[in-house]
Design a protein that fits this description.
138 residues, 4 helices
Length: 138
């Protein structure tokens, strides 16, 4: 389904994504946690209601940090395919008012830990994307 790039031994990767239903506030967040060789370690989905897609992606990113706290922060890479969410999570840019609280909490968590956050193109985030879409239409 996608090409896995192995991580350093002992590392974990959390991929997050959100699927939205066009013309609706319904959405599904999906998180996939894999170990350094790509084995599935954990995975969660959650149905949410959102006003717009950035809000859903921000919730997914925030939830990734919550789930990742079960692992050693220095050993976790968090990947998402929405560049604006990744950028706003680590920059000093003015935050969108309707997601500001979530972004500020993400920044607080990042400042107090050693999680690694990075952007991944959609093709490398296919599993989380597929799960979110499947659960949205379930």
């Amino acid at each position: 389904m996608c090409n896995w790039t192995p991580l350093a031994p002992g590392k974990f990767k959390v991929n997050f994504d959100v699927a939205t239903k066009r013309g609706s506030t319904e959405a599904v967040v999906a998180l996939v946690v894999r170990d350094s060789v790509g084995n599935l370690v954990d995975g969660v989905t959650k149905k949410i209601h959102i006003s717009f897609s950035l809000q859903g992606e921000t919730l997914a990113c925030h939830w990734s940090y919550i789930v990742a706290q079960d692992y050693s922060p220095s050993n976790v890479v968090i990947d998402g395919d929405k560049q604006s969410v990744i950028h706003l999570s680590v920059s000093k840019s003015v935050l969108p008012w309707d997601c500001g609280v979530l972004f500020n909490d993400i920044k607080r968590i990042v400042a107090q830990s050693s999680f690694s956050l990075r952007w991944s193109p959609r093709f490398s985030n296919k599993v989380a994307h597929w799960i979110a879409n499947a659960c949205l239409h379930d």
